[in-house]
Fold this sequence. Notes:
Blueprint (H helix, E strand, L loop, with lengths): L1 H26 L7 E7 L8 E7 L7 E10 L2 H8 L14 E8 L10 E5 L14 E5 L3 E3 L6 H6 L1 H14 L7 E5 L4 H12 L3 E6 L5 H7 L3 E4 L5 H7 L4 E6 L6 H5 L2 E9 L14 H4 L5 E4 L4 H6 L2 H9 L7 E5 L3 H10 L5 E5 L2
Amino acid sequence: MLRRILVCTAFSACLYFLxxxxxxxxxxxxxxxxxxxxxxVHGPGGPDALVLEQRPIPVPQSGQILIRVHAFGLNRAExxxxxxxxxxxxxxxxxxxxxxxxxxxAPGGEFPEGAAVATVMGGMGRLFDGSYAEYxxxxxxxxxxxxxxxxxxxxxxxxxxxxxxWGALFISLQLKAGETLxxxxxxxxxxxxxxxxxxxxxxxxxxxxxxESRRExxxxxxxxxxxxxxxxxxxxxxxxxxxxxxKVLELVGVTTLADSLKIAKRGGVVCTAxxxxxxxxxxxxxxxAMIPTGVYLTTYSSxxxxxxxxxxxxxxxxxxxxxxxxxxKSYRLDQIVAAHGAMDxxxxxxxxVVLIE
Length: 357
C-alpha cells in the first residue's frame, strides 16, 4: 500500500510540473531576434575583406532613427577605412558613410514611419556601424527627409557626392556665374558632379583626367574643355588659359596641390576637397613658396551641417530629368566585393551605387 501511495504521489508531482511547464509555454511569447544581411569587415584588407553576413537588426534608442536602407553610394573614404587607414576605427565594422531609404522606427517621434530619408557622415561606418546593410541606426540630427520623386538608384547616388561637390563649389569656392573653374581629378564621381553643377550655374568648366579615353565622358558630364594630366598641367593650362582660373577644385589632393596653385589667377581661390591621389599629408609646406601672391587656398570637408544645407531635392530632380548628367553604375549587396575592386582600380567611371531590394 505504501509503495502505491509513493508511486501515485510521484506521478502527481510529475503531472503538476508538466502542466505548469505547458502553461508557461502557452502564456510566454517566444522572443526571436530579427536578422538582416550586412557586409562586415573584420580587419583591414582588400575587397575580399568585405564579408556578407547575417546580423541582428539594430534597435534604435530615443534620438536615433532606424532606416531600412534601399540604396547607398560607395565612396573612397570607405575604401580607405577598409584598408585600415581611417584613424579611430575598430573592427569588426559595417562600413558606409551614407544611406537612403525609409524610416523603419523613430522612438523619439522625429520622423513618421515610412518617410523617405537620406543621411551622411556623423561617424557612420567609422565610429558606429554604417549603411552596408539592410538596416542602419543613425542619430536623428543627421537625417533629412527627401521629397523628390526619383528612383532609389538616383537618390542613392547623390547625398555624399553632391554635398561634397555643392559644398566645395558654393561654400568654400563661392563660385559665381561667368567665372572659370578647373576641376582637378575630373573623372572622379565628385569631379563629374562638380562639373555638371558648375556648368548649370553658368560657369566655364575645364576638367582634368589622366586617361585620354575619358575625354568624351567628361565633356558629356559638363566640362567645356579637358586637360590630360600627367602629374603637372600648369604649363599647358597657362598656354591655353593665359589668365589662369578664377577657381580651382583640387580633388587629387596634396600630390598635385602645388601645381594647381600655379593655375589660379591673381585673386583666385583653390579648394582642396579630395584625396584621389591616395596621399593625406604634404611632406613639406612652405606657404611663401607654395602659394602664389594673391592666390587663396581653402578646403572643404564633408559634414552633417553642410549636408543639411545641400539642396538635395532640387539636385535629384535635375539629375532625373537629365539636366545634370551624372553617370551611375549600380550593384547588388552581394556584389560588394566586385564594386570595391572597381573602386580600387578606378575603373567604374561613374558614381557606384548599391541597391537593396
